[in-house]
Design a protein that fits this description.
By secondary structure, this protein is an alpha+beta fold. 16% of the residues lie in helices and 39% in strands. The chain has a six-stranded antiparallel beta sheet with strand order 1-6-2-3-4-5.
């Protein structure tokens, strides 16, 4: 797709993501979704790609690449926000 992203999720959140939102309803397919994780504290520690219908794809340490739901209790707890990589 011709988009270069930073390697770390925190850099993607700070430098590569535009039109940030914290509302699921504003997300579009292909947007990046960001999460604080227990090990990252208040900073961004995990990223996924929004699909549709509150689903996103991400890489899990234990299960590999998986599809998850933003409304899942775990992901809701650590939700940071999302946005487009296009200006």
């Amino acid at each position: 797709y011709g988009v270069k992203l930073s390697r770390r999720s925190i850099d993607q959140y700070k430098k590569d993501c535009y039109k940030k939102t914290n509302k699921y309803s504003k997300l579009k397919q292909g947007d990046l979704v960001f999460f604080k994780t227990p090990s990252s504290g208040r900073k961004c520690g995990h990223v996924g790609i929004y699909l549709k219908d509150n689903k996103f794809i991400h890489a899990s340490n234990k299960r590999g690449v998986v599809i998850a739901d933003l409304r899942d209790k775990y992901w809701k707890k650590y939700w940071l926000g999302g946005g487009s990589v296009y200006k």
